[in-house]
Design a protein that fits this description.
three-stranded mixed sheet, about 100 residues, alpha+beta, globular, GMP Synthetase, Chain A, domain 3
């Protein structure tokens, strides 16, 4: 079994256990690095998806500003890559648990 097959199995498993309520958020989280890139993905985490609005926790105000500047591109990328209809992204300041500790 190849690593690609394992990766696809894991993604499908996560989407299955996420259920209908969290399916779109799980889909975004699983693809976040591809959507925003490695650097921004280490400093931000999608937290909630509700009524076509994505809420993203960001590690500090500097990175939040960076994400705000590219918000239209992020929305377009999510909508095209994942076939979703996100209308807005709200960035929240907070500690990002996905970030690597140094």
């Amino acid at each position: 079994m190849s690593w690609n097959s394992v990766s696809n199995f894991c993604k499908n498993f996560v989407l299955k256990i996420a259920g209908d309520k969290y399916r779109f958020l799980a889909l975004i989280v699983l693809n976040w690095r591809d959507i925003v890139g490695e650097l921004l993905a280490e400093r931000s985490t999608p937290e909630k998806y509700e009524h076509h609005v994505l809420f993203v926790k960001v590690s500090n105000p500097t990175w939040m500003q960076e994400l705000v500047l590219i918000k239209p591109q992020i929305i377009t990328r999510i909508n095209s890559l994942l076939d979703l209809q996100i209308n807005d992204i709200i960035f929240l300041s907070g500690r990002n648990h996905a970030r690597k500790q140094r």
